[in-house]
Amino acid sequence: MITNFTPYASLIGGILIGLAAVILMAFNGRIAGMTAMLGGVLEPKTPDSPWRLAFLAGAIAAPLIATLLGAEFSFASPTTGVVLAIGGVIVGVGVNYGSGCTSGHGVCGLARLSPRSLVATLTFMATTFATVTLIRHGFGG
Amino acid sequence: MNRILSALVAGLIFGLGIAISGMGNPAKVLNFFDPFGTWDPSLAFVMGGALITAAIGYRLIFGARSAPLFDAKFHLPTSKVIDTKLVAGSALFGVGWGISGFCPGGAIPALGFAPWPTALFLISMGVGILIARWLQALPRRQTA
Questions:
Q1: DSSP class of A48
Q2: Which tens digit of pLDDT belongs to each residue from A69-102?
Q3: Is the minimum CB–CB distance between B36 and chain A shorter than 8 Å?
Q4: pLDDT exceeding 70 applies to what percent of chain B?
Q5: Where are the domains of chain A?
Q6: Is the CB of A38 less than 8 angstroms away from the CB of B104?
Q7: Which of B21, B90, B99 should be substituted to probe chain A, the one whose Cβ sees the most A Cβ atoms within 10 Å?
């Protein structure tokens, strides 16, 4: 499935993601890591629950409101059904043991020059590349 | 209340950024990792833009202030350990990301503009997190 190369939109979107991380650090002193935010939802109420839920609500609401105002975001999921569910479970187990994902390690951790985050990011980028290559080209495809 | 409002604003900007960048589009994400096929290098611009902005912003904040505006201190991860758990967990996350095209940060905003199959991914991911926590809570098996 071909997708268009969108350097400007992707760069602007990336800057906004970085800006969100900066705002959360400047005002709340917190890392914008989605693994910790989502993990927080699965816990009984803690002192961190309200601001985490507020962040997650905002993250869902912004594209929803933009869509209602007429914006269109391209979306296609080549994976569906059981395979997608298996991928989801593997992501859940992985981010729990790895203590982070693309946002926590890949953006916030690398921005702080954390060696732990560098190892995590290089590792998951490598296994993602390997997995996609194997699925798309490895089975005689 | 202040903390909740600032988190909400940060969340709104994050969600918009993910949606605009294409990071919430599994087809686009997977194509970044397919240079031998339908390659789309856009993701490098997302990561580059986010990383440079965060790195500069963090430097300015930590240089100017000893505490955030709405809290007594910065809550930064303290662990410096690079162990099997970190590497194996990250490796596993990559496998799941490569299968699904969804990462946690991409999936949450995607719920706002493509509820299905994003919800299926997020529910499965929640199950995965709970399984991992249950495994971690098991008492370590005694070696005979």
A1: T
A2: 999 999 999 999 999 999 999 999 999 999 999 9
A3: yes
A4: 97
A5: 7-138
A6: yes
A7: B90
ipTM passes above 0.90: yes
Q: How far is B91 from B87, CA to CA, in rounded Å?
A: 6
A119 lies within 8 A of chain B by CB:
yes
Residue B143, domain member (yes or no): no
To test the contact with chain B by mutation, choose from A75, A91, A114 the residue with the greatest count of B C-beta atoms within 10 A, namely A91
Residue at B142 is within a domain:
no
Q: In this complex, do A11 and B30 lie within 8 Å of one another by their Cβ atoms?
A: no
Contact B40, A3 (CB under 8 A): yes
User: How many helices (H) and strands (E) are present in chain A, helices listed first?
Assistant: 6, 0
Instruction: Count structural domains, chain B.
Output: 1
Contact A127, B94 (CB under 8 A): yes
Exposure of A76 in the CB half-sphere (CA atoms within 13 A): 9
Token pair 């990383």 is found at B51
CA distance A28 to B136: 30
Report DSSP state, residue B142.
P
Residue B6 to residue A102, Cβ atoms within 8 A: no
Say yes or no to pLDDT of B73 above 60: yes
